Amino acid sequence: MAYISDDNAAGQKLKKSATQSEKTLLAPTAERLRAEASAEELQTIHMIDVLASEQNISLSFLQQLLALPKNNAVKYLHAKARKAVEQVYGDKIFLRGLVEITSFCRNNCNYCGIRRGNRTLERYRMTPETIMACCKDGYGYGMRTFVLQGGEDPWWIDDRLVDLVAAIRSRFPDCAITLSMGERPRESYQRLYDAGANRYLLRHETADESHYHYLHPNEMSFQNRMQCLQWLKEIGYQVGCGFMVGSPGQTAETLLKDLQFIRTFRPQMVGIGPFVATQHTPFADSPNGSVETTLRLLSVIRLLHPHVLLPSTTALGSLHPLGRELGILAGANVLMPNLSPVENRGLYNIYDNKICIGDSIDHCYDCLSVRMESTGRRIVVERGDFLG
Ligand code: 5AD
Ligand code: FES
Question: Which of 30, 69, 59, 26 lies closest to 46, judged by CA?
Fold first, then answer.
């Protein structure tokens, strides 16, 4: 078990194995790619430079970027995104310890494995004591942010969640508390913030209203989702939005709306990962989202909003054996290892074939440390607040 006690120790450990030339092979510089590009690739490279300097993208260029074969221009897109993240956050990768506190959910989203209509799923709800024990474990591994995530579980009324947040706040005063508990009334968000929560993740899922209604049952409202994000921001949370890549009904037009929403809303965090077709959901037979498209969108988001905190998600790692490494090399700078006890992990089946189901945090911590060596970046012991 690699128990790290300070930033430097982790950095030293990671520096040892991948040599500089190995790293360069994996992640060529923008300059080298430009030098090796064909005339056609150079045209695209020029457009990528314009995208980065104007921090904007058109529908036609988005379509072009997503349709390209994996050529030097695509590698340049990733290299440029790496440069952008390194200018703001250096070579740091921030860890967020994820605690999946409940798999009960009152919603019935068409893509999600823990939708209430999935009667085959055995549900669980962690006790506050278990949740605290997970945070303590994570703290030992250098995590300074805890993400409490769950379905929209009516048991977690404000009084209970406020008590939990206050307890974590007093026990771990140097840590950020992130909530990811879905749509709640404004007063609820305010009380949780006052109790010590700092950040809130609520993916918008799609910025196109009719696409939203294709992904969700009628009882769910696009307006309310957007309203919640606005409230969270007004209250003072660092806010994360996001969407699945390749969700059924998604088009270049809806993706452009997502990117424009990110440009204007300017969230502190954006979570994206490929859609994974999941049994016992209406979209069980739909095709999975593309890893390659996810990587390109990670880079585009990094260039449109260079300061954003961008996780290389577990869904990416679930669809590609090196998905999380590739996400980091495409401009992501956050990892979210799972702190939930192994006995609960297999039950939080938002999507099928999720990785790390049988692995405890000591295994995942070591695994991620080794994996990140190949990226030339290093996991640090910091809260990893938004800069800018
Ligand atoms: N595939 C990929 N991501 C999913 N999510 C939910 N279901 C799936 C799925 N089948 C994502 C949603 C949600 C987040 C917690 O997980 O975007 O906001
Ligand atoms: Fe969990 Fe690799 S990160 S097994």
Answer: 30
